[in-house]
Write a structure and sequence with these properties.
This protein has about 270 residues and is an alpha+beta fold. The chain has one domain: q2cbj1_9rhob like domain (Jelly Rolls), CATH 2.60.120.620. The protein contains six helices and twelve strands. Helix 2 crosses helix 3.
Length: about 270
């Protein structure tokens, strides 16, 4: 449990209520469905940009999380030197140009609704953006610091949601969760695990979601965690998941196996 830092009331209960209420006006179709029972809205999506335009609560939170103060706070809690990182914006850059707005909107649509011509342009642009990102954030330009971007999402999980025991993917460095509510059913806790040997992993602790609770950890092979299955709850489990994510292959944390970060969810 020492690898996981828990801070109660990082947000107030009223702040959490406002965030849930103001995001509640979004149609379900504006979320992406991942892990079967989880509705996912990334901070780089077109609909999230629209949300922060309309919601003072989300605008305030977005400004807080994207501040140097938040990175410094996380580094201090985890005993890291902030000089390791150079904070950048790539995926969550504001939608201003027409072509970029169209690109973001196209990425949010169901595949079967997209014309072949539009899909071809989209795939080509995505490929070029990936090459561009890998070039501008390569070790050639960033040989002293790691270029990181804060990528996060607002998620709503319903009954049946769970997440397998895992460590987070390779590009993620500093990881956090902010819970916005408490569910009234069974499960839904964040399970903390310890690897005993190659075949045995033990559950060592459970963190119950409560409004405003911040959970913070450094992603490595010791920070194994998962979500216990949510059952019989009359409310969705609402939370924010995010990380300071390397925009290149540069990472001071070394892993024994490769787990690719799904950066396409943010493009």
């Amino acid at each position: 449990m020492s690898n996981f830092i828990v801070i109660e009331n990082y947000l107030t209960e009223s702040q959490c209520e406002d965030l849930i209420k103001e995001a509640g006006e979004l149609d379900k179709e504006k979320f992406v469905i991942i892990q079967k029972k989880r509705l996912f809205l990334s901070n780089s999506s077109f609909f999230f940009f629209e949300l922060i335009k309309q919601s003072k609560s989300w605008q305030k939170l977005n400004n807080l999380l994207n501040s140097d103060d938040f990175l410094n706070f996380c580094c201090k809690k985890l005993g890291l030197n902030t000089e390791l990182f150079s904070r950048k914006v790539f995926f969550s850059k504001k939608v201003e140009k027409k072509y970029y707005k169209e690109f973001k909107l196209l990425g949010s649509k169901q595949l079967q609704s997209i014309k072949i011509s539009s899909l071809t342009k989209y795939v080509a642009l995505k490929f070029l953006r990936t090459l561009y990102r890998k070039f501008i954030y390569s070790n050639f330009f960033f040989w002293k610091k790691i270029p990181v971007e804060l990528l996060y999402d607002y998620s709503k999980a319903s009954n049946g949601y769970s997440n397998i025991i895992h460590r987070d993917t390779d590009n993620r460095i500093i990881v956090f969760l902010i819970y916005l509510n408490t569910t009234d059913g069974l499960g839904g806790e964040l399970g903390i695990y310890r690897k005993i040997n190659n075949t045995k992993i033990d559950l060592v602790d459970k963190i119950k979601p409560t409004p405003g609770k911040l959970v913070l950890f450094l992603n490595n092979e010791e920070t194994l965690h998962g979500a216990l299955e949510l059952k019989n709850s009359s409310k969705e489990r609402c939370f924010i998941y995010g990380s300071f994510t390397s925009l290149s292959k540069n990472n001071f944390i070394k892993f024994s196996d490769k787990q690719t970060t799904e950066l396409q969810l943010y493009d």
